[in-house]
Amino acid sequence: MDADTTVLLRLAFDRAPANLANQAIDRIREEVGGESSYATSYEILLPDGNVRPWLLDYLLPRLVDYLESRGAKLPHCGGVFLSVFSGDTLHFIHARDAVALLSEWSGLSFEELRKRYGPR
User: Fold this and answer.
1) Is the pLDDT assigned to residue 29 strictly greater than 90?
2) How big, in percent rounded to 5, are the helix, strand and coil portions of the chain?
3) How far apart are CA 14 and CA 84, in angstroms?
4) Rounded to an integer, what distance in angstroms lies between the CA atom of residue 85 and that of residue 22?
5) How far, in Å, CA of 80 to CA of 46, rounded?
6) pLDDT of 34
7) CB-based contact 98:11 (threshold 8 Å)
8) Which residues on neighbouring strands pair with residue 85, listed in sequence order?
9) Taxonomically, which superkingdom (predicted)?
10) Among candidates 36, 19, 38, which has minimal Cα distance to 28?
11) Share above pLDDT 70 across residues of the chain, in percent, rounded to a whole number
């Protein structure tokens, strides 16, 4: 596992075996969403090896567009968490934490991310 993968996965607030993904995602949806709402999972399969270019070039534009389109505005990204499959483990990361890290790595502010990748 490369250093960037380690940094990303340290953001996880919970973990589960990947083979129990459906049950784990449902549990986290309820925990994150609370009684009055239902949180949304954004699932990704983390590639092996050097993940930073993939995260910045592939994931970040799609994630920002998704979040902004569904009303989970940056930087808080309310009600959305990432379900990150890495090996045989599923890592749960708040979208706000992932976007903050990717913003830092990209050198782009939240406003710049919105302008560059948000819905047109």
Assistant:
1) yes
2) 50, 20, 30
3) 11
4) 12
5) 18
6) 78
7) yes
8) 45, 90
9) Bacteria
10) 38
11) 98
